[in-house]
């Protein structure tokens, strides 16, 4: 008989951890349960046991390992989704090319996200970034699930997930708690305050304009450049791989007339696989950017994991530059260096898009971009997994359009084809 847990009172997010290593399971459970908004209700050492546990426990989120005996994660995943179509599954895999490929393929089978797991128990225990990413992604996806179902969030999770006053920014409200030994707590930056205005974007249709106003009340819109863009920049984080595929699907097979440079928060290995997947999905040349690579119109270039992507112009041609500078906004690659670099080259002939993601990476770069006359679009809150990055630039009054992900691609195509030379 299934052990039911009521969510009507806004209890913690209910998680199952599936990993064949007892040591890794212990670490994952400890990281998750140290957050008062998460409860690990059960664990399993392989996919077969996990399926049995799903029949007994009321689970919202599954952390699913890939390589396990008896039944691996990829075999278990579709069976889990068949049992519970609304289940949220986050893949956990070590940083190998094979596992990176499998993790991104899992997104097509129903998983919502992945966390790149360090390859040894010692490194898992010492990796602060992994711990932060694991907890943040569980809370973001579980919160999105409850919101869609009309269920209450855990106590104080409304602030953490963007409810009430912080809904417009997507920034987490810091909660006071003692850090586990050996870990560092990082204070979160204060989000920008919304700028109140009744204006809207310059090239919206009536329907788009109405949607912008209804979904983003009190947000100011910028006019945007009149010049035809010479480059397209995209920044994304949590939920980004799926959002990127939907974004490019909106191009309706129209080959881009400019180079496309993408910074997706991902580790090394994963970014090369993402570039491959984007190339397969679009039919356009797609690469993990390398230092000195010539950036051609009609091609996609993904910032390599562990390095910032920038660019320089020589004799009218754009070339990629990779930088091993320190992380910005806790991220490497980060969106801000890309935006700053391209703005210094093309100024008002830059078109940039911010998609779903936690935090505020891209905000400072977007300020410089729009100050130079460039144009910025953002994904709307309703279609974002986390409206942190797009919410930050939106509420700062830097956007020309704020649209659902299934409309952004078409809007970008119109901008690329329009403007003046």
Task: Tell me about this structure.
With 421 residues, this protein is α/β, with parallel strands linked by helices. It has 2 domains: 139 residues, 3-Layer(aba) Sandwich (Rossmann fold), CATH 3.40.50; 212 residues, Methylesterase CheB, C-terminal domain (Rossmann fold). Helices cover 36% and strands 18% of the residues. A 7-stranded parallel beta sheet has the order 8-9-7-6-12-13-14, sandwiched between helices. A 5-stranded parallel beta sheet has the order 2-1-3-4-5, with helices on both faces. Strands 10-11 form a two-stranded antiparallel sheet. Strand 3, helix 3 and strand 4 form a beta-alpha-beta unit. About 14% of the residues have low confidence.
CATH superfamily of the largest domain: Methylesterase CheB, C-terminal domain
The biggest beta sheet is recorded as: 7 strands, parallel
Tally of contiguous helical segments? 14
* Spatial arrangement of strands, main beta sheet: 8-9-7-6-12-13-14
Structural class by sheet pairing and helices: alpha/beta
CATH topology of the largest domain: Rossmann fold
Residues in helices, as a percent range: 25-40%
What portion of the residues fall into strands of 2 or more residues?
Answer: 15-25%
Separation, N- and C-terminal Cα atoms: 68 Å
C-alpha Rg (nearest Å):
21 Å
- The global form is globular
| Succession of helices and strands | EHEHEHEHEHHHHEHEHEEEEHEHEHEH
**How many beta-strand segments?**
14
Number of domains: 2
Residue stretches low in confidence (pLDDT < 50, at least 5 long) are 158-215
Mean pLDDT: 84
Which CATH architecture of the largest domain would you pick?
A: 3-Layer(aba) Sandwich
Q: What is the C-level CATH assignment of the largest domain?
A: Alpha Beta
């Amino acid at each position: 008989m299934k052990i039911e847990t009521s969510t009507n009172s806004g209890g913690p997010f209910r998680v199952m951890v599936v990993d064949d290593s007892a040591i890794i399971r212990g670490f994952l459970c400890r990281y998750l349960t140290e957050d008062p908004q998460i409860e690990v209700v059960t664990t399993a050492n392989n996919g077969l046991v996990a399926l049995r546990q799903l029949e007994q426990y009321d689970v919202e989120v599954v952390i699913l390992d890939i390589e396990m005996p008896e039944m691996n994660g990829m075999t278990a995943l579709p069976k889990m989704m068949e049992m519970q179509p609304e289940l949220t599954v986050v893949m956990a895999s070590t940083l190998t090319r094979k596992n990176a490929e499998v993790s991104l393929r899992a997104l097509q089978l129903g998983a919502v996200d992945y966390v790149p797991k360090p390859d040894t128990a010692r490194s898992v225990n010492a990796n602060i970034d992994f711990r932060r990413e694991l907890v943040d992604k569980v809370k973001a996806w579980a919160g999105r699930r409850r919101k869609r179902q009309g269920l209450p969030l855990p106590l104080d999770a409304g602030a953490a997930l963007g409810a009430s006053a912080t809904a417009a920014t997507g920034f987490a409200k810091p909660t006071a708690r003692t850090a586990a030994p050996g870990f560092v707590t990082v204070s979160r930056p204060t989000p920008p305050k919304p700028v109140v205005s009744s204006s809207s974007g310059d090239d919206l249709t009536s329907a788009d304009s109405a949607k912008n106003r209804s979904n983003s009340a009190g947000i100011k819109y910028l006019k945007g450049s009149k010049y035809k863009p010479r480059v397209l920049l995209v920044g994304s984080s949590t939920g980004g791989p799926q959002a990127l595929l939907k974004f490019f699907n909106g191009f309706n097979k129209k080959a881009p007339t400019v180079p496309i440079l993408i910074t997706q928060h991902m580790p090394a290995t994963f970014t090369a696989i993402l570039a491959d997947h984007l190339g397969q999905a679009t039919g356009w040349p797609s690469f993990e950017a390398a230092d000195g690579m010539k950036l051609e119109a009609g091609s996609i270039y993904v910032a390599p994991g562990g390095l910032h992507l920038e660019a320089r112009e020589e004799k009218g041609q754009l070339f990629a530059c990779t930088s091993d500078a320190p992380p910005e906004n806790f991220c490497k690659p980060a969106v801000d260096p890309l935006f700053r670099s391209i703005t210094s080259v093309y100024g008002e002939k830059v078109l940039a898009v911010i998609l779903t993601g936690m935090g505020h990476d891209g905000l400072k770069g977007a300020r410089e971009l729009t100050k130079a006359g460039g144009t910025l679009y953002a994904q709307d809150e309703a279609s974002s997994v986390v409206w942190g990055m797009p919410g930050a630039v939106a509420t700062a009054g830097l956007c020309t359009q704020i649209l659902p992900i299934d409309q952004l691609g078409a809007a970008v195509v119109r901008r690329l084809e329009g403007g003046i030379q």
